[in-house]
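Ligand: shikimate-3-phosphate. Inputs:
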Amino acid sequence: MTKPVLINKKIKNFKKKITISGDKSLSIRWALMASQATGKSKAYNLLNSEDVFSTIKCLKKLGTKIIIKKKYCEIIGFGLNNFKYKKNLTLNAGNSGTLGRLILGLLIHCPHKVKLIGDKSLSKRDFSRVINPLKDFGANFYQSKKSSLPLYIQGTKYVRPIKYFETRGSAQCKSSIMLAALNTPGKTLIKAKKSRDHTEILFKQLKIPVKIKKKKKFDLIEVEGKQNFPAFNYKIPSDISSSAFFIVLTLLLKESKLTIKNVNLNPSRSGIINILNKMGAKIVLKNKKIYKGEKIADIFVKSIKSLKAINCPSSLNASAIDEFLIIFLAAARAKGVSYFKNLSELNKKESPRLTLGSKILNMIGIKTILTNDSIKIFGQPNIKLNKNIKIKNYLKDHRIFMMSVIAALSFGGKWEIHDRDSIKTSFPSFLTIIKKLGGKFK
Ligand code: S3P
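Predicted complex:
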C-alpha cells in the first residue's frame, strides 16, 4: 500500500507547455489489431500504463511476439485467427474494461476454454453486454456469476455473422463485435448508438472491408470478415482524457495559460472542449491535422473570469464520457445550476462515477441533486475551503484520484487522497506533470 497524497496548498498560476502521454484507447486498439495483422507493426509513443501492459501480457500468452524497445513497441502478427491456444489459459485484463471486452471478440474461435479475470473493479462490471452478442456468433461462455468476471470463453469452428443493435453508446461493445466480425466469414451488420469511432477508423485505414453510414443518432456498420491485412506502424497522439484534468485546472485558476501539444481530438472524443466552451471557456485548437484518419491538434487554454452553468445536451455524453468527473468540478465553480442527464453509463465505469462524483462535490460543500442517471450541480464561483477532506474507498478509480488532486489544488482545504497507484492504469506521469506546473503535495 502506498501512502496517501497530502495536499494543503493551492497551486499558483502558471504559463506552461506540457506533453501528455499516448491515448489509451488507441494504444490498446493498435496492439490488438497488430496481433491480427501479418508482419511487424511498430507503435511509437504507446501509452506506458498498466492497462496497456495487461494488453501486451494477454497477447503474449496467446503466442503473439512482442518486443518493447525504449522508443517503440513492436508486434509480430501472424494474420487473422492465428493465436496459439494452450490448455488452461488464464488472461488477466487487470483494470481495463476496454481490454476485457475487446479481447473476447478475438477469442470466438478458441478451441479450449480460456479464463478471463480482472481486478476487483473490473470484476464488478457488466460483461453480459458483450457475452450475448458474442454467443450469437457461436461462442460459448461459462461463468460463476451471471454477468461478470471471472468467465470462461470457448469458441467454435462454426462462427457465423450476426446482426447487432448497440443501444448504450458503448464503443467497447461495438468494437468487441467488430473484432469478432473480423474473424467471421460473411457480413456482420451493426447498428450502433454514437460512440468513439477509433475502431472504424482503423479498419478503414487498414483497408479491411467496412462500410459505414453515419445517421443522426446511430451509425450503420457492415464488416466483411476473413480478409487478412498487412502490419502497420502508428505514432500514438496524446490522450484527451488525460489532458482534460489540466485543461480544467487551468480554467479554475486565475491568469494561467497552458498549451498541450499533439492531442487526439477525434470529434467522438472531444466533447469536453465543446462543453467547456459552452460554459464560457475559450479553448483554441491550433496546428490541426489528420493522422491516419484521426484529428490531431494542439490545445491552448487560458483562465477566464468565471465559468457559467450548462444544461449539457445528452448528445455530447458519449464524446465526453470519461471526462464527466472533471467537468463536474468545473460546474462546481460555475455561476448557476448545471444539469447533466441520461448518464446512467457513468455509474458503470471503474467506479460508480456519477454517485461518487456527486459525493465528492458534497464533501467540498457543493449542493447536488442526484438521480440514477442525472445530476444537478449548484455552482459556487467564490467557494473557499478550509475543511479536511479524505478521499478513500473508491475502488481505486484513477479518474476519481485525479479529479480529487485537481480539486485540492484549485479549491484549497486539507486533502488526504488515497490510492495514488491508481494512476498507473491510465496516466502514470500525472503527478510528475502536477509538480512541473508547481503543484505541491506529499
Ligand atoms: C473506451 C470506451 C468507453 C470509455 C473507456 C474506453 C474504448 O467505454 O469509457 O474508458 O476505448 O472503447 P464504453 O464503451 O463502455 O462506454
